[in-house]
TrEMBL record:
This is Outer membrane protein. Residues 195-316 form the OmpA-like domain. It comes from Sorangium cellulosum (Polyangium cellulosum). One of its GO terms (cellular component) is membrane. CDD domains: OmpA_C-like. Pfam families: OmpA. Gene3D superfamilies: OmpA-like domain. PANTHER family: LIPOPROTEIN YIAD-RELATED (PTHR30329:SF21), STATOR ELEMENT OF FLAGELLAR MOTOR COMPLEX (PTHR30329). InterPro entries: Bact_OuterMem_StrucFunc (IPR050330), OmpA-like (IPR006665), OmpA-like_sf (IPR036737). Keywords: Coiled coil, Membrane.
Length: 332
């Protein structure tokens, strides 16, 4: 059978996107364009199939590129949120520096006052000596002022120690956050400061199902990562504090939000101990619904209030004392 056709050029875009298919199609078209040449049907079918495969491969590549761009944008947004949190921590440290500066100014004022009184004392002493009177009373006044100055200096030293300890705790918590970077980026853990103490905040919904107080499997995996990071901070105590929203826990065998929050904190402590954190470094407490971080007027606010906080505690005066808060229920 003689088949005659006009040989058309293969478009440049087809040659670039599907080079193998373009070559097969070119061979088929040349066969059609050559008088007396028989075109094999299977060669033509093969060319069409190759074009289809390469078209599908191109569509998959475009979809993957689009997904990669979306993930990059999400990671940029998460990095911006972490940077904002670090800026807020820096602001807190600057506020403490201002407080220390005020106390230092007070100390300088007391020192000047002491010098003025010392000069006055010398003048009065000279007058009293000439009059044959005792200067014992003025000496007592001077001693009292000296005691006040010593007390002020002791307070300044104490504030400096507290400032250094707070900065050290913040640095340790930033180190923990860096070790949990993937989890922080995913929004499951938030780093913050409350009451002057750095903490890790975990949503209760990530750890517990509904109103239950047993840690779910996914929560155990998350807490295992947290335990691994906490183990790297030597000789540091942590308190796990449970919080709830203002709704009564339905289906929970607990009398109040105090019971639920305390039971959840104790459950988290047990998982952290299983993850290798020393029990002597842990304590648990429940705050119920009474320490919210958002209004309970919306579901979003209630979700923020249902949380577990792992607080890096200040070392108590005197070694060996167990950490804890007055009125909080504690667990080993």
């Amino acid at each position: 059978m003689n088949t005659t056709t006009t040989a058309g050029k293969i478009p440049a875009w087809m040659s670039r996107r599907w080079p193998a298919a373009a070559r097969l199609l070119t061979a088929a078209l040349l066969g059609l364009a050559t008088p007396g040449c028989l075109v094999r049907q299977d060669l033509y079918d093969q060319a069409r199939a190759e074009i289809q495969r390469e078209r599908e491969a191109g569509e998959r590549a475009r979809a993957e590129a689009q997904l990669a761009r979306a993930e990059a944008a999400q990671r940029s947004a998460q990095a911006a949120a972490i940077e904002a949190e670090l800026l807020r921590l820096a602001d807190d440290l600057r506020a403490r520096d201002l407080q220390l500066s005020d106390v230092t100014t007070t100390e300088a004022g007391l020192a000047r006052r002491l010098d003025e009184l010392a000069a006055m004392n010398e003048e009065l002493s000279a007058r009293l000596r000439s009059a044959g009177q005792s200067v014992g009373q003025l000496a007592n006044e001077r001693g009292s002022l000296s005691a006040e100055l010593a007390e002020a200096r002791a307070k300044v030293d104490e504030l400096r120690r507290h400032q250094a300890a707070a900065e050290a705790r913040a640095a340790r918590m930033r180190d923990v956050a860096s070790r949990l970077q993937a989890t922080v980026d995913g929004g499951k853990i938030r780093v913050g400061i409350r009451g002057g103490l750095p903490l890790l905040e975990i949503s209760s919904d990530a750890l517990f199902d509904g109103a239950r107080t047993e840690v779910k499997p996914a929560g155990r995996k998350l807490l295992a990562d947290v335990a691994g990071a906490l183990r790297t901070i030597a000789d540091q105590r942590f308190q796990v504090v449970g919080h709830t929203d203002d709704r009564k826990a339905r289906g929970a065998n607990r009398a109040s939000s105090w019971d639920v929050s305390t039971a959840r904190a104790a459950a988290v402590v047990e998982v952290l101990i299983e993850g290798g954190v020393s029990p002597e470094r842990l304590s648990a407490a429940g705050a119920g619904e009474f320490a919210p971080v958002a209004p309970n007027a919306s579901e979003e606010g209630r979700a923020k209030n249902r949380r577990i906080e792992i607080v890096l505690q200040a070392e108590p005066e005197g070694a060996g004392k167990a950490p804890g808060e007055a009125g909080a229920a504690a667990a080993p």
